[in-house]
Design brief:
Layout (H helix, E strand, L loop, with lengths): L15 H11 L2 H10 L10 E6 L2 E7 L4 E6 L7 H13 L3 E6 H6 L1 H15 L1
Parallel strand pairs: 3-4
Antiparallel strand pairs: 1-2, 2-3
Amino acid sequence: MCNYMQRRILPYNPKLKELARKLRRQGVLSEVILWNFLKNKQMRGFDFHRQKPIDEYIVDFYAPDLNLVIEINGASHADKIIYDKQRQKRLEYFGLSILNFSDSVVKKDIDSVLRTIDDWVVQNT
């Protein structure tokens, strides 16, 4: 029996849909690398979405059946510490869990990233 939360509809700003599409097309390397392991329900059969609008934000990856957000933080996040904390707090308000990985770790050690995600899924389902 799984104890993960039931899928629910989260609010989002419709104006972010086109930007999310654009971000998916641009494809940051670390996101593409991770996406190759998350798409098509490769992570324990769970569905992941890429560049998903939630509230006033666009998250890198979102697994609705797990209420899990995965973020990859590059160099641009170094000067956004307060913004990132506010964003995380808002996402957690909706009952979402957030896993953060640095861009360089995804590029250099995808296996440890996948193990961390897999461990989280096992512990929370």
